[in-house]
Amino acid sequence: MLERWNAALDYIEDNLDHEIETTELARIALTSEYHFRRVFSALAGIPLSLYIRQRRMTLAAAEILDGRGVLDVATKYGYSADAFTRAFRDLHGVTPSQARRPGTILRSRQAVTFHLTIEGRSTMRYRITELPPFHIVGKTTRIPLRFSGENTAMTEFHRSLAPGTGEQLRELADLPELPEILFVSDGFEPQREDGSLFDYYFAVATTSPATPEWNTLAVPASTWAVFEARSDTALAPVLQQLWADAFGEWFPSNPYEAIPGPEILTVTESTSDWSSGAGELWIPIQRSL
After folding, report:
1. DSSP secondary structure letter of residue 250
2. Is 224 in a helix, a strand, or coil?
3. Full-prediction pTM beyond 0.85?
4. Residues 281, 286, 288: CA angle, nearest 5 degrees
5. Which of 14, 104, 151, 171 would give a disulfide with 146, using CB separation of 3.0 to 4.6 Å?
6. How many CB atoms are located within 10 Å of the residue 28 CB?
7. Tens digits of per-residue pLDDT, 200-259?
8. Are 49 and 33 in contact (CB under 8 A)?
9. C-alpha distances out from residue 276 to 227, 230, 236, 280, 281, Å
10. Rounded-to-integer distance, Cα 235 and Cα 22, Å
């Protein structure tokens, strides 16, 4: 499986001076475009589009230092002069012209390869389950994505909820598999970069239509991978790590791929201060191509 992903990486390296279509990378890796983007970000630690841009700017720097014209290098990598200067500055912190000054420090985005490694973590606990069509019903907002640490926009949204919102929602929950309050992520931007926007729901799952006072998201019948986590010291970081473990470790090692749809976090046990407890991450899946 990793051989296919590394073949896709080789294709990127061989075509940095050409247009690179995610559809072709997904074809080489024998997966969907959506799944390729998600797993690449988890394995490489950087969104695909940013990785390709930084690899191009890494190679472009060498050509700039060799004395090649800025416009010629920009054209080679598919940029206008202004767009090239912006992309170059984003990685190196200086313009192409400034890069030629003696002693200027530049940055390099190294080419990545994927290897099967032993991380020393405990075995992931998961199950595969089917759910009928249902609705996610609750309150929603659109906030920036944060890969690690506190998401302050999410915290402020929770504080803005009217007292008793959770109790009102629990009265609507009628899907036995998801009886708890749900923290739902959906509507991600295509590149899913840190800081990009997504729709966040404080909600429950119900098979009944919602009343106008609630925001609603319809979810079709799907197969789900459900990942479990428990902590006796710091629950929130452990739950946040579930996404990285699922896409960085579980998906590359199992014959499933993620499909577009809401990603659902539910806390099944917790102390009042979230210092300990347990939770689950639900991701819609299908068998790999």
Report:
1. I
2. strand
3. no
4. 120
5. 151
6. 17
7. 999 999 998 778 899 999 999 999 999 999 998 888 888 888 988 888 888 887 789 999
8. no
9. 17, 8, 9, 14, 17
10. 36
Quote the distance between the C-alpha of residue 22 and its chain's center: 16
Sign (positive or negative) of CA dihedral 221, 227, 236, 114: negative
- pLDDT tens-digit readout, 147-182: 777 899 999 999 999 999 999 999 999 999 999 999
Provide the phi-psi class of 112: left if phi over 0, else alpha when psi is between -120 and 50, else beta. beta
Structure tokens at 175: 């899907």
**Whether 77 contacts 60, CB under 8 Å:** yes
pLDDT of residue 217: 95
Q: Which pLDDT score, from 0 to 100, does residue 249 have?
A: 80
Provide φ and ψ at 76, rounded to 5°.
-55, -40
Tokens of residue 185, six digits: 């992520």
d(CA 69, CA 67) in angstroms, rounded, equals 6
If you average pLDDT over every residue of the chain, what do you get? 90
Strands 182-186 and 125-131: unpaired
The whole-angstrom separation of Cα 235 and Cα 7 is: 38
Q: Return the bridge partners of 131, or none.
A: 222
The pLDDT value recorded for residue 116 is 58
Q: Both tokens of residue 14?
A: 């061989």
Report whether pLDDT(72) > 60.
Answer: yes
Rounded to whole angstroms, the Cα distance separating 15 from 38 reads: 21
Query: Contact, 124 vs 250, CB < 8 A?
Result: yes
